[in-house]
Amino acid sequence: MSFSLFMSIAATLVTGAFTVLVFRRWLAHPKQHLLAWSIGLLMYFLGTLSQVVLYFVWSPFFFGLWYWCGALMVATWLGQGTIYLLVRRGNIARNFQMALILVGIMTLPWVMFATPFNANAWVPGADMTVIFKAECAPGPDGVPMIVNEGVFNACSSRGTVRFFSPIMNIWGTIALVGGAVYSAVLFRRKQMLRSRMIGNLFIAAGGILPAFSGALISLGDPSYKYFGEMAGAILIFVGFMMVSSAKDEARESIEIKRQVRAVAVD
Amino acid sequence: MAESSVRSKKVYPQGVPERPFSLRFTRIDGLILVGTLIFLAVVLVYEYAQAGGSSYLVLKSTHFHLSRYGLGMSLVMLSVAFYVGIVRKDDVMPWFRRGTYVVFGSMVIQALSGFAMMLMGGVPGAPEHIFYGVGTMLCLPFFIFVEVTANKRPAMGSYMWGFFLMLGVIVRCFGTGPRA
Question: Which of A19, A212, B95, B136 is deepest in the core (most CB within 10 A)?
C-alpha cells in the first residue's frame, strides 16, 4: 500500500467518524455551529473518500466531488462553524452562511457538468494533487504552454471554477484558524478552561496544516498534501474533543455551584 | 426642558409594522414596481419594432437591458441600504423589502429570457455565464430569507450583503455574456 493511499484511507476513516460524532452532537443540541461543522466534516470525508476512489479508478463524478469538496467547501464550512461561535452580533453569521450556500450552489453544477476533465492525465495510483492541473512553462513568445497534461488541462484558472478556490480557502482558513487562535488567546488571557485553550490551538493547527500544504501545491510542491490532510483531520478531531469536554466540565461546575447554592438556601 | 437632538433608531420587531409577505403597495415600492414595468414595456415595444418580429432578438435585447437595470438597481438599493443601515442605523422599511422583491422579480424574468434563448439554440460567450446567471437570480432570495426570519433587529445588513453580492456577480457576468 502506497503512502498516499494509506494517508487517504486514514483521513477518510477519521473524518467519517468525526462527522458522525459531531452530527449526533448536533441532533442532541441543535446549535448552528455544530451543523456547520458537521457539513464541513462531511465535505472533508467526501473529499478524502473521492481521493481513495480516484486512486483505483478514473471517475469524472468523483474527481468533480473531490475538487468541489476539497478545494471549495471544506475550509469554508469548518470556518463557518467558528464564525457562528464567535460572531454573535446581528445576523452576520447567517449572512456569511447564505453567501457560502450561494457559492456552493453556483459551483457544484459548474464543476460536475460544465468543466471539461482530461481523463488522459489519470493513471492508476496517480497522485491527484500532482495531476489535477496542467504543468505549464513560458513558451517562446512568453505565453504559458502546457508541458505536462493535467485533469484541468489549462494554464490559467480565469473563467473556470478554479477561480473560486483561493477565495474560498482564504475565507475559510482565516475564519477557522483565526477564530481558534482568537479563542485560545481569550481563554489564556482570562486564565480559565485551560483544556479549551489547548483544544483551540489544536483546531488552529489542524486548520493550518491542509492550508499550508495546499499553498505548497500552488508553489509546485505537493509532497505534504496527503500528510497535511490526514494530520489536519486528526488535530481538528482532538481539538474538538478537548473543547467539547471543557464545555461539559464547565456545565458540570455550574451545575454543582447551583446545587451548593440551593442546599445553602435550604 | 431642552429637546434631545439624539434621534432614536427605528427598529421593528419581526412582523411589525406588517408581515414580510403581505400584499400591498405604498408610494415608494409602488413607484419602483411601476417604473420597472414601464421600463420593461418600453424595452419590449422598442425592441419588437427594431427586431422585425424576431422573438429571439427581442429576448436577447430584453435580457441585455434587464442586466443593466439589475446593475443600476443593485447600486441604488445598496446605497439606500447603506444609508439606512449604517448611517441612520434603522431597520428595514416595508417599502424597501417590497422594492427588493421587485428587483428579484426582474432578475427572474432576466433568467427566464436567458433560459428561453438557450432553448432556442442560443449559446452565451462563455459557459460560466449560465452559472453566474443563476447566481444573479439567487442572490436576493437567500438574504431576503435571512431578513424575514431574523429575530435580531435591525437587519438591514442582509440586504447590504445581498445587493453587494448581486452587484459583484452581475459585473462578473458581463464579461462572459455575448458571443465574441
Answer: B136
